[in-house]
Amino acid sequence: MAFVRNRVPALSHEPNVIARRTLKSLFLTDVERLAGEGYFKGTKRIALRAFIDMMGPDCALYPSHAAVAQKAGLSERTVWAALNEAEGLGLLRVTPRYVYDAEKGKRVRTSNLYEVAVTMAQKAAAIVAAAARKAHEAAKREAAATCRAFRGLFHHLTATDAENPPKDILKKGERVRHDPQMSRLDMIQWCLRGS
Question: Has this prediction a pTM greater than 0.85?
Fold first, then answer.
């Protein structure tokens, strides 16, 4: 049995009281208003229309980028860019969803839960949450890149070739003899004093 656990709390803990049709029309109105201001250039508006059409009867939104891309007839990259821009402008609140994978022994990301921000307070909270999530993901990417760089440093260190060892290291017959500086009895007494 898999349990879904959200990392970021939802915008509101009360059930959605806005009707599905109203929520969709509010979202599309905001998209058109922002498109008039110069946002959502190219085919991003088409992607957002296909995205909002995938809203369930309970106003739940968690489609994959591939499903939205197939519905809109666009690439996944275009859909990702449109949703990313909508999140940055405060139209959507994105909550990553995770499931514990017993085979891998860790949590794996399954999808995103999208919430449409309606009020100005929800839009402001969505903008702040988007900035925080992006900063967190950027820090994780930077840490991973640093780890890869360090792994690369140690991976490319030269090792001794087992078949052709360097010639000057082990020459037979050139052993250096170290004569003891004290007698055996003196060494035993010195060791006993130390303990």
Answer: no
